[in-house]
Amino acid sequence: MKIGVLALQGAVAEHARTVEAVGAKAVLVKRVEQLADLDGLILPGGESTAIRRLIDRYDFLEPLRAFGESGKPIFGTCAGMILLAKRIHNQESSHLGLMDVTVERNAFGRQVDSFEADLAIKDVAEDFPAVFIRAPYILEAGDGVEILSEDTGRIVAARDRHYLATAFHPELTEDTRLMEYFLKMAEDAAGKAVHR
Ligand SMILES: NC(=O)CC[C@H](N)C(=O)O
């Protein structure tokens, strides 16, 4: 399986390492043509406004939408979750607008810029070490969205069809269980599901 990591800005190398750790091939995506032969794509954390500027500069917006709309899985972490969302709280427009959620940016407030929490994530882990950095969270999720994890009442991981999003950074720990979950989504989508 080939999993791309959008390599415009943000935590790119860490995701690529985790992709390789679960036995898939990581592709650092810097040009639109590279999307063609991927089985899934990761939108990393970083700064969503900066990533968006680069998406526009390199004409990635429509190709990324088309990638998602073709049924290929996309995993957005932190800023990547903001890029995936259909709605952004207090903002008129969204970015890719693919996942049926409303997100709020920097939602944990300045006092708690960064923190770690052990999270129960449905179908993934009882105790996932989650690192939050100026993290957003999901304020509202559409009916078809499966809530995978909440931290103190806030939705911090969710899945909408073939879109997966976390408010935290799974790539900053050695724990590969969430990446295994995403790889399984990509395998299922590719119709190549193998017993693992
Ligand atoms: N760690 C992150 O990805 C932070 C996200 C950032 N606060 C944003 O709004 O894009």
Automatic annotation (TrEMBL):
Keywords: Glutamine amidotransferase, Hydrolase, Lyase, Pyridoxal phosphate. GO terms for cellular component: cytosol; glutaminase complex. L-glutamine binds at residues 46-48, 105, 133-134. Pathway: Cofactor biosynthesis; pyridoxal 5'-phosphate biosynthesis. Its EC number is 4.3.3.6, 3.5.1.2. Pfam families: SNO. It comes from the Bacteria. The active site is at residues 78, 169, 171. Gene3D superfamilies: 3.40.50.880. GO terms for molecular function: glutaminase activity; pyridoxal 5'-phosphate synthase (glutamine hydrolysing) activity. InterPro entries: Class_I_gatase-like (IPR029062), PdxT/SNO (IPR002161), PdxT/SNO_CS (IPR021196). SUPFAM superfamilies: Class I glutamine amidotransferase-like. Catalyzes the hydrolysis of glutamine to glutamate and ammonia as part of the biosynthesis of pyridoxal 5'-phosphate. The resulting ammonia molecule is channeled to the active site of PdxS. This is Pyridoxal 5'-phosphate synthase subunit PdxT. It comes from Terribacillus aidingensis. The lineage of its organism: Bacteria, Bacillati, Bacillota, Bacilli, Bacillales.
